[in-house]
Amino acid sequence: MQLKSLRLLVAVADTGSFGAAAKRLHTVQSNVTTHIKKLEEELGVQLIHRAGRVRPTSAGLALVEYAERMLSAHDEAVSLFKGQEKACGRLRIGAMETTTALRLPPILAAYHAAQPDVDIQIKTGPTAELVELLLNGQVDCVFVAGRLEHGRYHSLKAFSEQLVLVGSTPMTKMPSSQALLTSAFLAFRQGCSYRQRIELLLASQGVNAGRIFEFGSLDAMLGCVAAGMGYTVLPRGTVDAHQHRFGIHTLALPASIANIDTYFVAPEPETWTPALASFAETLRDAVVVNEPQLTAS
Amino acid sequence: MQLKSLRLLVAVADTGSFGAAAKRLHTVQSNVTTHIKKLEEELGVQLIHRAGRVRPTSAGLALVEYAERMLSAHDEAVSLFKGQEKACGRLRIGAMETTTALRLPPILAAYHAAQPDVDIQIKTGPTAELVELLLNGQVDCVFVAGRLEHGRYHSLKAFSEQLVLVGSTPMTKMPSSQALLTSAFLAFRQGCSYRQRIELLLASQGVNAGRIFEFGSLDAMLGCVAAGMGYTVLPRGTVDAHQHRFGIHTLALPASIANIDTYFVAPEPETWTPALASFAETLRDAVVVNEPQLTAS
DNA sequence: CGCTACTATCTTGTTTATAGATAACCTGAC
DNA sequence: GTCAGGTTATCTATAAACAAGATAGTAGCG
């Protein structure tokens, strides 16, 4: 049973004529006869009344109903890839908590305005988890800290973040090793790339193993920092956006520790649905506006 | 885009290997490659990651979802016609009010027991309307009074009915012409074949145009007869079944007027779905039990 | 570095699809 | 009844597509 044959069957049922059906599907009448006959032989049932007016038999009518379901699914699938201008379908994005909170909203807003027919799904998590999701095909693209080494993926430097030390009291210089040792550090759960920077920072201050508490959400973490529970390390933009809600203070870190880039990573462009391709384009435009020097690989 | 290709795509996504997909669908690996490649060319998107583990790209995953919808619709459609033993789908039956009330229940019960997966739909109406429904393909088969002359239909004598005169008082002989003239006659709406018999009866008694009231339901009609509103003509079996509910009395009519056969009429057997073929068989069995001499044409 | 398992490509023979020409058919009108 | 108009079925030659096997190329693993 071929979709072509079913389309002809539906056309015959619609038009009430083999010739008209042929014309509608840009073929000739003899082919319509052949296709219908083949369907009938395959199913062992007469599908079309030929004597007198041409019209579907009750068996034909029943098949037409299924044919319409199949054909509409087919047409919808084709429009996923060949939709003119307007993409549709689904876009699954993975991103870090901080990226989702600070960077994504304006981009998603612009994308949704351009492609209103795409369902957007966001999953948040630390970098290591996101990479896993991407490799397993559970998301279509991710925003992660650091370029993905894996060769067969497309990376685009999306955002440059500057990490700052966040504490509950004003700071003018790095806290002493003693202070760092006795304080706790607050970080996202295992796999968060910012957490590695905390460890780098502690090492640079000659402190080897501070206590690290794990948090799942940004709000909880900042709340605890404000309450004097300890320090954390976050992108400056993220802290600035929340500063009015919490009594927190920041201290710039040395560039080697502070500078960290967020990359947009997705499989090779050849595998992109129009929905994803359009998102990458939206992102590239947004990045160019904010930061003219961009790097793709 | 062919169903065959989609089935291969699903198999590749399932098994994670072109070779295994080929084996599952009884073909060779090179054909799988060709089909997938053709799909990819047609849609302009890579559907399967080949490097490393073979697995669908996000575009491929999206297509697989639609492919599964199309294939399940296809398989369901095929099972409509090629279902082993158990028919499925829908069976639309048209029948007269009296047939539906008296004759159909045991047959439908037997049929439903044999084919529990078939949805049964009953439409009731007078013979003329039922024939119209059948000719328009709005029902799959009908039970009507009298054989359908139309050559391209299959007829089977299903039930023999004996019409009786029904009134509110005991009768031992035909009411006088005078009584008939002053009484009303109650019948189903235009197109009912029993109604023609009423007119025949009146004509045979030398009465040309009695008043005839039209009713839509059997219960209403019998209730009005019992209330002394007038006479009606119905199959004996139907009246017997309702006699305990109404105070009504019957009188046998001359055979030429009384005997009327109910026929099962459907399009040619070549156009039958398994659901309809199985129903015809159930009916034939039931008819043979009740009345060994049956006539098919 | 070679082994293993896999996919891509090429080739061959066969099958199937297409379009056109023609025959057979039904229907309605005269 | 017969004829005209429109419709479907059949046939045929050409072109396209397909299936299977053999072979070449490639990635991953020890």
From TrEMBL, chains A, B:
Transmembrane segments: none annotated. Pfam families: HTH_1, LysR_substrate. The keyword Transcription regulation applies. CDD domains: PBP2_YofA_SoxR_like. Keywords: DNA-binding, Transcription, Transcription regulation. One of its GO terms (molecular function) is DNA-binding transcription factor activity. SUPFAM superfamilies: Periplasmic binding protein-like II, Winged helix' DNA-binding domain. Residues 1-57 form the HTH lysR-type domain. Belongs to the LysR transcriptional regulatory family. This is LysR family transcriptional regulator. It comes from Vreelandella glaciei. The lineage of its organism: Bacteria, Pseudomonadati, Pseudomonadota, Gammaproteobacteria, Oceanospirillales.
